[in-house]
Design a protein that fits this description.
The structure is a homodimer of 337-residue chains. With 337 residues, chain A is α+β, with helices and mostly antiparallel strands. In chain A, a hairpin with a 3-residue loop joins β10 (217-220) and β11 (224-227). In chain A, strands 3-4-7-9-8-13-14-12-11-10 form a 10-stranded antiparallel sheet, sandwiched between helices. In chain A, strands 1-2-15 form a 3-stranded mixed sheet. Chain A has a single domain (9-335), classed as HIT family, subunit A, CATH 3.30.428.10. The first copy, chain A, has helices spanning 127-144, 182-198, 202-213, 254-274, 312-317, 326-335, and strands spanning 3-6, 13-16, 57-62, 73-79, 92-94, 101-104, 108-113, 152-159, 171-177, 217-220, 224-227, 238-242, 280-285, 300-305, 320-322. Chain A is globular, with a radius of gyration of 20 Å. The interface between A and B is large, with 83 and 83 residues. β1 (3-6) of chain A pairs antiparallel with β6 (101-104) of chain B.
Chain lengths: 337, 337
């Protein structure tokens, strides 16, 4: 029976429409090859020996000491050569009735080169490598947030060309923006309103619900919970959230980072194995750099496999039609080991 | 120089980032074959002789009289067999703190079979056929809006499988929803606020601006204007808007429908020829069925060619990075004849 479910944070509705799964075409699942691949590609900007083809590293992890921008690193972060933003002088122009308002696109963009291995999927990284990746996000957040004009720092990954990855070598992106983006602003406003009415964090209450109900849980360890959100926008949408209250990713302790690495590796592996390495996007939703959201906001990660195409209905209305039942998606992923 | 432009209606910002167009990969333009194709496919649900494979028609145009659901029609509208919504009894359930709110997905979905020809691209229709299509949208809007539970009627088209079209035969979709979708609600709120402050319609003021400036005009005739919006979200985003003030598509007169057909055919042809028949989505933004928006809202059509992939940044933040300058996109399309 078709139903509509409400996102409790933003108030937006998703149509859960299992009937549409029977339409006469297959979901456009674009599997990329399992395992295999190659360790090193001499043409790749992100491989060993090509460090000079990227801007100088702003963060590097190495097992053994070595010169900057030379091989031997475990993970590097570099400025994005093809950034859409930079930190040149500010300007803003507007016409009288504000129909044409234009500002300099002030910001910073970086690429996290997740591993020296040219084709190893992030889901197959050793857990220590996942930990380096999650630690790099934290360290770059802290560094980038020092720039006064930065209001938000988006940290995300596109896996597979169908999800927008333009290079094969595993990498994540960080984009620091001079505004708080609308999706974050909507979550903050929803969470603030809920806090005002209920004197509790909406995410903490959602976690309590999920832990009682258990039908949407994908994985949990001591400190982290992965689940399919009640109003999932697409098949196999997967969240990961700390069970403890915390508004900001960069406040993670070294111990918490270990727990997160274990949980995140498990989630990525379930997605990879269960859905044949689908294209996906994941992103971290964390507090803006210059707003006090400590009481009511709660950072989390959202992973959206690209199983269907966003088409005219979604683009034109902002509503989503999910052709899978979240509880069934969660049950399936829960079973993948 | 990278800049950010503000959508004057919703207040959302787009990053206009021409530097990124130089990234080491081509935009994922998925051209489908020019011309050619076949007139009839015996396996196609939407072709002549297969009328019995669809639900019965709810609207049909014929040049000569004929029995319902038999060949000879010029355009048919049928209920969508794979609808995500229907008009069964209502229900709504919610938990105490509104974390899980669920309603029956009450609504209606229809498919407009735009032509008997199996593969003829909409851009290559004779103008009379475009007029039938635009008239069918109007007539179905009027009919569907009679159902009291319907709050909005989304009318849209997906062209090409990469834009979400699941069948080759040219068709549009109509989805009538029990809520006003968030994208429409945001436009209405922005336009209402502008009206309150300026005592004029924001869209009418935008039209005046565009007609003076002229750099973003793609095409115009006496009553309609097509232009690249100032804060275009993607390369070659194309709007079409009536120059006269009107909040609702279904108020179009027979004479206005002729003018619209001429303008819309020209726009579709420019997109088809200029961009090698790209995948695209277009949708009509019109007034909700049960709100008085007459003074401040202004219906329009938005067409978004799928030249790039919505990835982690766009999904995670709701911000867009456009790798083309709207004035250059408009200049290019203006030159296509």
């Amino acid at each position: 029976m078709p139903e509509m479910r409400r996102n409790p944070i933003t108030g937006e509705w998703t149509i859960i429409a299992t009937e549409r799964a029977q339409r006469p075409h297959k979901p456009s699942l674009d599997a990329t090859p399992f395992f295999g691949g190659k360790n090193h590609d001499p043409e790749c900007f992100f491989c060993y020996e090509n460090e000079h083809t990227t801007p100088p590293e702003v963060l590097v992890y190495r097992e053994k000491p070595g010169a900057a921008n030379t091989p031997g690193w475990s993970l590097r972060v570099v400025t994005n050569k093809f950034s859409a933003l930079n930190l040149n002088e500010e300007f803003c122009m507007q016409d009288d009735n504000h129909l044409q308002v234009c500002c300099y696109a002030r910001g910073l963009a970086e690429v996290v080169i997740e591993s020296p291995h040219h084709t190893l999927n992030t889901a197959l990284f050793p857990i220590q490598q996942i930990e380096l990746l999650l630690k790099a996000y934290k360290e770059r957040y802290i560094e980038l947030s020092k720039e006064p004009s930065i209001k938000y720092i988006a940290m995300f990954k596109n896996n597979g060309s169908q999800a927008g990855a333009s290079l094969e070598h595993p990498h994540s992106q960080i984009i620091a923006t001079p505004i708080v983006p609308p999706v974050i602003q909507a979550e903050i406003e929803g969470a603030k309103q809920y806090y005002k009415e209920n004197k509790s964090c909406i995410y903490c209450d959602m976690i309590d619900n999920e832990l009682k109900d258990r039908s949407r849980i994908i994985y949990e360890n001591e400190e982290f919970l992965s689940f399919a959100p009640y109003a999932s926008r697409s098949p196999f949408e997967t969240w990961l959230i700390p069970k403890f209250h915390s508004d900001s990713y960069h406040k993670l302790t070294a111990k918490q980072l270990k727990g997160l690495s274990e949980a995140w590796k498990t989630v990525l592996y379930k997605i990879y194995m269960g859905l044949d390495n689908p294209p996906y996007n994941y992103f971290i939703h964390t507090s803006p750099t210059r707003q006090d959201t400590e009481e009511f906001f709660h950072w989390h990660m959202e992973l959206i496999p690209k199983m269907t195409i966003m088409a005219g209905f979604e683009l034109g209305t902002g509503m989503f039609i999910n052709i899978a039942i979240p509880e069934q998606s969660a049950e399936y992923l829960r079973g993948i080991r």
